[in-house]
Amino acid sequence: AQSVTQLGSHVSVSEGALVLLRCNYSSSVPPYLFWYVQYPNQGLQLLLKYTSAATLVKGINGFEAEFKKSETSFHLTKPSAHMSDAAEYFCVLSKGFQKLVFGTGTRLLVSP
Amino acid sequence: KAGVTQTPRYLIKTRGQQVTLSCSPISGHRSVSWYQQTPGQGLQFLFEYFSETQRNKGNFPGRFSGRQFSNSRSEMNVSTLELGDSALYLCASSGDNPQETQYFGPGTRLLVL
Predict the structure, then answer these.
(1) A43 and B90 in contact by Cβ < 8 A?
(2) How confident is the model at residue B101 (pLDDT cuts 50, 70, 90)?
């Protein structure tokens, strides 16, 4: 079965520090993977998408993710955290035909 | 282009009632998916409509139903509401490609008392 696992329900960083949000996937076929962000009381916004064209994917707001098949991972990083990055982040796998499988989410807390 | 819109944004109902939520996709998008988000279960896929036909369905009881109109707008209906149906209901639209990115609306927050 296809699934995603996000390690850590909460991650705390200081402003300016590296952000690393971990995601591992399980898929019997080459996966389509996404990272979405959700701000309080809002819907989901696409950060970036992996479609096998390149293993390092750059997204919006300075985020990027690297697809590592050998580790079945798709971790999200940002070199320097900003207060506005505080939100919940979801790693998502597509099963095709618009059926998405979501990770449990990681809440990012950024302290000044 | 305007984004995905959902109405109403907030709703309060009592147990046993029914509710209808509406979603207008991005112009040109023919696929509309619905998701339920709760603190306990996270984000779960409800169903997906494409060109007025339900193409995919998640593991929800028959009380949850939907439909799509010829202009791609979609509605979701929940009958005989239960307390556990309290959730944020998210709608997403995408183009024709089965792996195309989904764009989400702001959601409808339903509270069942």
Answers:
(1) yes
(2) confident
